[in-house]
Amino acid sequence: MLTRSISVLFKLSLWLLALLCCLQANAKPVFKVLVTVDWEGYSLEAENIAQMQSFRQQFPEIPMVQLLNPVYFVRDQVNISHIQQAIQSTLLPNDVQGLHLHAWKSLLDYCHVPFQQHPSFAPDNDACKLKKDCGYTVSLELAYSQQDLRRLLACSQQLMVEHGFEKPKYFRAGGWQGGPKLTAALIANHFVWDSSIIAADLLITRWHVDSPLIRMLKDLHPEATPLDQPYEVNPQLIEYPNNAALADYTTTAQIVALFKGLLDHDRDVMVLGFHQETAVDYLPRLSAAIPKMQAVAQDRGIELRWVTE
């Protein structure tokens, strides 16, 4: 009786193994796409919020990496509840809430970090001289010490929590101004995900090849290409290069071409996105690209999976 039972179990095991092998053989390769949103800190215009809400209704299955900016909350004479409601109206439960920082003076002052005006990746139109908020174009990596960056990150995390949002552990530097000091500061503040690396050539559709931004990015990320894939910075922090830029810099056709290029080179992760402040102008490019990407994936026998990591 025991021998017969063992024989039955052995045959069943063989059958299950064969079934598993068959399923694996028939499984489609998976390609992951991350949609990121940079909240710049400039404004929360109704038309941009409405465009995002429309996108969420059209594609509720697509999660987003919402890289939020605490500077909205620290300026003088702001309506806190209005800001909270505007941001929250664009979020879905499957989103991740991260952090996006530019070196805004109002935020630096609030966090007790001495403000620096240079180096800058673009002119700031003398905003500081006009006593308006300024610093948007100042490089976090090049202008600030590691200690200052640690303090700024910790303060910004706390600001988001105090205003009803999750403590951010995802990050992207304004102007993709990431580097060793910022990376060390991220690790010290327990961030687990960064997307501050980009191939500078992805931005020359709108930035001159000799502009300060392009030159800075080529110095900061000299090896970056549109084919870059996620990699481990250390056991805590994973870098997700922004290998498809943002919709402000890519047409619908270019988004699809970048997707095909990744497939052609056997890559399986794409990181794209848009800015909240210009969603009404550029988010439609991504909306139009999604069905085209889905069609390409279907033709190539690829499972297109929308994820946040």
Protein model, in words:
With 309 residues, this protein is an alpha/beta fold. It has one domain: Glycoside hydrolase/deacetylase (TIM Barrel). It is 41% helix and 14% strand. Strands 1, 2, 3, 4, 5, 6, 7, 8 and 9 form a nine-stranded mixed beta sheet that branches. The radius of gyration is 22 Å and the shape is globular.
- Provide the helix percentage: 40-55%
CATH architecture: Alpha-Beta Barrel
* Content-based structural category: alpha/beta
**What is the tally of helical segments?**
10
- Reading the helices and strands in chain order gives HEHEHEHHHEHEHEEHEHE
Average pLDDT: 93
How many strands? 9
Low-pLDDT regions: 18-25
Q: Tell me the distance between the termini.
A: 51 Å
Which CATH class?
Alpha Beta
CATH topology (level 3) name: TIM Barrel
Largest sheet: 9 strands, mixed
Radius of gyration: 22 Å
Strand share of the residues? 5-15%
Provide the domain count: 1
Shape: globular
